[in-house]
Amino acid sequence: MSQERINTVVSAIVENVRDALREHNVTMDEYRTAIGFLAKTMKAGEIPLMTDVFFNTTVVEVGNRNTRGSINDLQGPYYRPDAPMVTDEIKTMKELGGDPMEMRGTVKDLDGNPVAGAIIDIWSSTPDGKYSGFHDDIPVEYYRGKVKTDENGFYKVRSTVPVPYQIPHHGPTGELMRAMGRHPWRPAHIHYMVQADGYQKLVTQAYFEGGDYVGDDSCEGMHTEDFVIPEFMEGDTRIMEIDFVLDVPVEHQKAA
Ligand code: MBD
Ligand code: FE
Prior knowledge:
Layout: H1 3-23, H2 28-43, H3 47-65, E1 100-109, E2 119-123, E3 144-148, E4 154-160, E5 165-166, H4 172-180, E6 185-186, E7 189-195, E8 202-208, E9 228-229, E10 233-234, E11 237-241, E12 244-246
Parallel strand pairs: 1-11, 1-12, 8-9
Antiparallel strand pairs: 1-4, 2-3, 2-7, 5-6, 7-8, 10-11
The structure holds 3-methylcatechol and fe (iii) ion.
C-alpha cells in the first residue's frame, strides 16, 4: 500500500472514532477499559476474529460494488492457504460423524465460457463446529482442500455437511458480543475462494435453505440469497451445486 493510501484510510478511521468518542461523551475510564480489552483480545489471538465479526461484511459490500460476477461473501478468520490439493474427497474424521455432502458445479466467465484450471479452495467446519488448522489440533488437511476445474470448467468433491456454528465465544470476542446483547451463531456454511489467471479472486459462502440462523447471522454475511441452496439429495448425500461466475479485474473492465 502506498503512503497516500495508508494516510487516507487511517485518517478517515481516526476521524470517525473521534466523532464516536465525542458523540457519546466517552470518559477516560471507559477509554482505558476499552484499550485493556483490546490488549486482552490481542493476547488471546482473537484480533482476526473480532475484526471479522464487525467489519468483514463491509469489505464484502465494497467488493460486491466492484464485480459483475458471483456474489462475494465473508472470508472469515479461518482460511488456510496451505490446504492440500484434493480430487474426489476432502478428508474428514470418521469419529466425528457428519452426513455426506457433495459439492459440484462449474466456473464460468461473464460470457458463459468455462474457466478450465480454476482453483477452488473449499473449507468448512467439523460436524462439531471447529476449523482444522486452528482448533482442537485438527491437522490442516482435514475439512479443507483445493479442487481444480476440468476442461469444461467443472468441479466435484465430497465432504460432510457442516452445522450451525458458534464463533469461538469463550474468549474476549464472545465476552464483547454477550456484553452487547448479541448471540455468537452463524448459519451452517461452506467457504469458497475461487482463483484463475486473468480473473478477479472470488471469496464467497454457501448456506443451507431453511437452516437455523439463515437470516440471523452474528457476522452479517449473506448479502443476497444467491447461494442459499435448497435441499437436494442423491441417496443419502446432500448435493450443494454452485456455478461460479468470475469477472475480470477492475482495471481490465471496459466501460459499459
Ligand atoms: C467463521 O467461521 C466465519 O466464517 C466468520 C465469517 C467469522 C467467524 C468465524
Ligand atoms: Fe466460517
